[in-house]
Amino acid sequence: MSTSVLDPSILERCPTTVELLRQVADRHGDQLAYVDADGSPLSFSEWDAQADAIAAGFADQGVKEGDVVALLLPSCSDYALCYQAAMRLGALTTGINPRMGAREIEHIYARTSPRVTIVGDGLLGGRATATLSTGDLGQMKRSGGTAPCSLEPFEDRAVAIVWTSGTTGLPKGAVYSHRNLQAIAAAELAIARPFDRRISATPFAHMAFMTHLWEEINCAIATYIVPTPWRAADALRIMQEGRVTVGQGVPTQWRLILDHPQFERFDLSHLRIAATGGASVSPELVREMERRLRCPVVIAYASTEAGLISGSDPGDPPELIANTVGRARKGVELQVIDPEGSPVVGVIGAVRCRSSAIMKGYWQDEATTSKVVDDEGWLNTGDLGSIDEAGVLSLVGRSSEMFLRGAYKVYATEVERVLSSHPQVSQAAVVPKPDRVLGEIGVAFVVPVSGASPDHQQLRRWVREFLADYKAPDITVVVDQLPVTAVGKVDKHQLTLRTVRLTRPV
Q1: For a surface tag, which of 37, 356, 457, 467 has the fewest beta carbons within 10 Å of its beta carbon?
Q2: Which domains does the chain have, with CATH numbers?
Q3: Which residues contact 434 (CB under 8 A, 6 or more apart)?
Q4: Predicted TM-score (pTM) of this structure
């Protein structure tokens, strides 16, 4: 199946995302590109024309090639308009998730010195040469201005700075070019088919949007935006009203959708595929999703530094989706290496990948870039895992999340996966706690399914049925929900802080 709405001869004349949008707008201009949370639509022709007008307004503010435009906005069509407008001036867009803390936001401003910041309603702008509101954007659109003369098309021109979650320190900015975005689209992902209608699952400042823009334009995909804060009722309503074909969400979001008391009343018959990722998912949840959504489920694995790495395919068994992160995507080389740097199969090692989808480097930080990307282009993901003879990758956790209980290594993700498969557990996170005798012990924070009361010893026995006894959690804490970072990942730093006063049960 073709994964572009453009004829190959036309696609060859699109070296950058700007030319791509112009071509799609010319041929499929009436197709919806975005539907905002309030229902306001934006077509591809409107996206192209309004991006030109905003680019003219940015130019009046002094934005030029190599400058940074900061977007302190929730997910919205204005975000996409500004991203395209900045591209037309050769500027880079840096998205700032409004849920970030003040220290993180200040760090981004200090690192990028944006020429212009666009600030959403009710949000406070930071340090920039100019601060614009959404009202200012509206005036630019109405002006009907045109972008200054086009830049020379250059595939390797940087277009975006995407920030890491910052759970282990201040965020780092991964820089992406037009070429990187094109390489991600070339992977022919199952969630991207011509004229799909896709629901948004993560903030637009996240890499899932920032690095997949070529893919969305190339397939003329309509993106339906869920209001902030995310609610299952809103997601269900939008999937029904928009006849959404691609459902997206982290496992917790899918659990809330399936548990919604009126789930069965919604018509989701247009769904052709449901995607999840960002956290462990149990086989039971995958089976339930496939049964009740009546479509295949796929999982994806990527990182802020690598726009895509691996994933499952439609029709893969629930056990593969739940216990692995699938196979390398098209155009990606994937290896697990031992401490000496040699590729290994069937044993735990460091996960690395190489492809044209990998970032150009960290923003103005060659020293840190060289620590994660070697001279041959291999990116050290920071994850630990094993790969089998069929090329299927299983993760056991971040290298920073592996801890030593006595003399034994414990991988948090491995334990979380088993805990999450318990019938009384909806979600689980494991963090280490210092211990006078063993050095470190495991603390499990678990969210129970509705009406359940999982017991510590019961969960320990469950883990020991599948894993070595020393991997069973020493302390279990039942919570209503797990804290999350600005991009929706479990905030392990906050959980670690909560372990300080905990004591082991006698």
Answers
A1: 457
A2: 404-498 (3.30.300.30)
A3: 440
A4: 0.86
